[in-house]
């Protein structure tokens, strides 16, 4: 008799040959007595993410409802989606969420169950994960055979159709050679969703595909291949400063989820050193190779506008050289850095976060104003930042606004004036017109018992060391 009140370990995985394409899912279930159950299946037209989700769904469905499930997946999309992102998705009624049908099934299955989710690196030799991967490929094999059989049946009346079909081991792909590695999934999904009316002329395409020659100078001016010069806007430093570079940065994207193939369409960053804007900035529009969809309502950038813009890989060298080594300051920086890391990783540069430090102004705001709204718009109102037209979000405009907010939150003067030499020539009346932030720092005095405890401690220190402590020395010098 099986004891259902026990631990079950599940290894789940998905595979897709082409994305979208023929896919399969696989599940290895191991109960407390080390009994194993293997499940797999496939679909003729699907995506890798759908197969990863289906594997998790089928694995849970096949497990006892009162068992404690420990699930291992090599898909961060599944693991983070069910443990972190799903609350927000449900709050917005699944708007703009991809694969909502499967996420809703998974959410319903997880209700009132005891489940621990774990991410595990794929193709790293882990026995359970390799077994699930093998099963997923078996599922894809079964879908391949069904598709071949269906195609053959549909073409029986064709003059060129043979009466019998011979098994083609390359189509069956027994070694999983056609499976798309997880790190390539985003790129393959995007290529499959390329905007058809974004086709460039042959001459324009050849120019954009040509090797790019770019050299970032010490003042961040750049020499860019002529075909790209009109798309990459870098302004020179007009107010040189010496110190650590801060880059106030913002991005616009086709959606919220880089894991689902959403891409960057605009990047804007302005340089700040010693709490002074240097005048240097970078601004780029990017062809995301997919439709912008409903995100156009936020940023106002249409498919037609982005059609002739360069792809991220073509501007990656210039952007990476401009950003690397700086401290990136962004509002909800996790969002921007995840997208930038994914884009640079895909372009072969590695993760931007490995060569930059990051400051998140949203976290700063939450610490400073707990329990209050801390969106960029809310902070602009709270700190009386000069209003700007934000009918549409723009990366460079939001970066400029954020620079004001950052200075205000960190206690400095708020000003977008760049030429430092103008500061000394201004009259006192002009300087009085500058927007400044008055911050009242509370003075907290110690209680009498705290003072007495401190006195007792200093006395014990002096008795033990035969000399007064630094506190006592400082107090004596003041007196």
UniProtKB/TrEMBL annotation:
Cofactors that this protein relies on: Mg(2+); Mn(2+)
Manganese is among the record's keywords: yes
Chief localization: cytoplasm
InterPro entries assigned to the protein according to its UniProt record, in alphabetical order: DnaQ (IPR006054), DnaQ_proteo (IPR006309), Ribonucl_H (IPR013520), RNaseH-like_sf (IPR012337), RNaseH_domain (IPR002156), RNaseH_sf (IPR036397), RNaseHI (IPR022892)
Cofactor note: Binds 2 divalent metal cations. Magnesium or manganese.
Catalytic residues (positions): 393
Cell compartments where the protein resides: Cytoplasm
Substrates-to-products reaction catalysed: DNA(n) + a 2'-deoxyribonucleoside 5'-triphosphate = DNA(n+1) + diphosphate; Endonucleolytic cleavage to 5'-phosphomonoester
Domain RNase H type-1: 4-141
CDD domains: DNA_pol_III_epsilon_Ecoli_like (cd06131), RNase_HI_prokaryote_like (cd09278)
MF terms (GO), sorted A to Z: 3'-5' exonuclease activity; DNA binding; DNA-directed DNA polymerase activity; magnesium ion binding; RNA-DNA hybrid ribonuclease activity
Amino-acid positions noted as binding Mg(2+) 1 in the UniProt annotation, renumbered to this chain: 13, 52, 74
Alphabetical list of SUPFAM superfamilies matching this protein: Ribonuclease H-like
Binding of a divalent metal cation, residues: 250, 252, 398
Residues involved in substrate binding: 250, 252, 294, 299, 398
GO cellular component term of the entry, any: cytosol
Biased composition (Polar residues): 150-164
List of residues binding Mg(2+) 2: 13, 133
EC code(s) of this entry: 3.1.26.4
Region listing for Disordered, in residue ranges: 144-164
Quaternary organization: Monomer.
The family this protein is said to belong to: Belongs to the RNase H family.
NCBIfam families named in the record: dnaq, dnaQ_proteo, PRK00203.1, PRK05711.1
Protein name: Ribonuclease H
Gene name tied to this protein: rnhA
């Amino acid at each position: 008799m099986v004891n259902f009140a026990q631990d079950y370990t599940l290894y789940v995985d998905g595979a897709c040959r082409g994305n979208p394409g023929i896919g399969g899912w696989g599940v290895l279930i191991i109960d407390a007595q080390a009994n194993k159950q293997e499940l797999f299946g496939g679909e003729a037209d699907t995506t890798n993410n759908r197969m990863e989700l289906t594997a998790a769904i089928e694995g849970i469905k096949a497990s006892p409802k009162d068992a404690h499930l420990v699930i291992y997946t090599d898909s961060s999309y599944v693991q983070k989606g069910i443990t972190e992102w799903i609350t927000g998705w449900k709050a917005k009624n699944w708007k703009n969420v991809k694969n909502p049908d499967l996420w809703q099934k998974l959410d319903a299955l997880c209700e009132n169950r005891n489940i621990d989710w774990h991410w595990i690196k794929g193709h790293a030799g882990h026995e359970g994960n390799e077994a699930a991967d093998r099963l997923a490929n078996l599922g894809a094999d079964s879908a391949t055979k069904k598709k071949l059989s269906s195609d053959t049946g549909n073409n029986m009346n064709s003059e060129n159709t043979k009466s019998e079909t011979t098994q083609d081991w390359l189509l069956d792909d027994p070694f999983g050679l056609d499976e798309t590695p997880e790190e390539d999934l985003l790129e393959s999904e995007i290529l499959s969703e390329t905007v058809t009316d974004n086709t460039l002329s042959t001459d324009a395409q050849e120019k954009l595909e040509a090797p790019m020659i770019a050299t970032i100078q010490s003042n961040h001016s750049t020499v860019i291949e002529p075909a790209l010069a009109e798309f990459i806007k870098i302004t020179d430093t007009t107010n040189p400063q010496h110190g650590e570079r801060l880059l106030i940065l913002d991005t616009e994207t086709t959606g919220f989820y880089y894991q689902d193939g959403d891409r960057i369409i605009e990047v804007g960053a302005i340089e700040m050193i010693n709490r002074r804007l240097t005048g240097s900035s970078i601004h780029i529009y990017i062809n995301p190779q997919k439709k912008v969809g409903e995100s156009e309502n936020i940023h106002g950038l249409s498919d037609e506008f982005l059609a002739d813009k360069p792809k991220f890989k073509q501007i990656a060298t210039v952007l990476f050289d401009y950003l690397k080594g700086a401290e990136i300051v962004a509002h909800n920086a996790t969002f921007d850095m995840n997208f930038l890391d994914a884009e640079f990783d895909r372009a072969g540069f590695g993760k931007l976060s490995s060569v930059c430090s990051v400051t998140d102004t949203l976290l700063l705001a939450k610490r400073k104003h707990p329990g209050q709204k801390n969106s960029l718009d809310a902070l602009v109102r709270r700190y009386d930042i000069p209003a700007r037209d934000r009918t549409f979000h723009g990366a460079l405009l939001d970066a400029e606004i954020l620079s004001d907010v950052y200075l205000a939150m960190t206690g400095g003067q708020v000003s977008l004036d760049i030429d430092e030499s103008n500061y000394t020539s201004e009259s006192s009346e002009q300087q009085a017109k500058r927007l400044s932030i008055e911050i009242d720092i509370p003075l907290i005095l110690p209680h009498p018992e705290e003072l007495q405890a401190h006195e007792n401690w200093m006395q014990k220190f002096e008795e033990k060391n035969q000399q007064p402590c630094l506190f006592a020395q400082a107090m004596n010098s003041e007196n």
